[in-house]
């Protein structure tokens, strides 16, 4: 993959300076057009290289696991918790992602649900 990216930069197809003026989906489209670069990789580029504030990688298994852990007491209606909560987290989805990853890193997600008794949670 690195070879393909380097080749695209040499060809002038990729200009890292231009990414700052592009919206997130433009960057994802451009990066995923390169062999070996998928959506998850492009989203990580948005978060960790470009510092974008509102990126949520729906394909990230860790984020999905952590969101299910955090909202285990809430009925998801068959939808993933990431999809269900995404609108509430805007425009700071990246920050939420970082906290969810940290919950995994600290072993909280593996330790089990925060609250097992659904009657203890407020109904909205």
Total helical segments = 7
Q: Specify the structural class.
A: mainly alpha
Average of per-residue pLDDT values = 89
Q: What's the order of the H and E elements?
A: HHHHHHH
Which blocks of ≥5 consecutive residues have pLDDT under 50?
none
How many strand segments?
A: 0
Largest beta sheet, briefly? none
* % residues in beta strands: under 5%
What sort of overall outline do the alpha carbons produce when their principal axes are compared? Answer: elongated
Radius of gyration: 18 Å
What is the end-to-end distance?
A: 46 Å
Keywords: DNA damage, DNA repair
GO molecular function: alkylated DNA binding; DNA-3-methyladenine glycosylase activity; DNA-7-methylguanine glycosylase activity
Protein name: HhH-GPD domain-containing protein
InterPro entries: Alkylbase_DNA_Glycosylase/TA, DNA_glycosylase
Short description:
The protein has 124 residues and is mainly α. Helix content is 52%, strand content 0%.
Features:
124 residues, mainly alpha, 7 helices, 52% helix, 0% strand, DNA damage, DNA-3-methyladenine glycosylase activity, HhH-GPD domain-containing protein, Alkylbase_DNA_Glycosylase/TA, alkylated DNA binding
Please tell me about this protein's structure.
InterPro entries: Alkylbase_DNA_Glycosylase/TA, DNA_glycosylase. GO terms for molecular function: alkylated DNA binding; DNA-3-methyladenine glycosylase activity; DNA-7-methylguanine glycosylase activity. Keywords: DNA damage, DNA repair. This protein has helices spanning 2-11, 24-32, 39-48, 61-70, 81-89, 93-105, 108-111. The chain is an all-alpha fold. It is elongated and about 55 Å long.
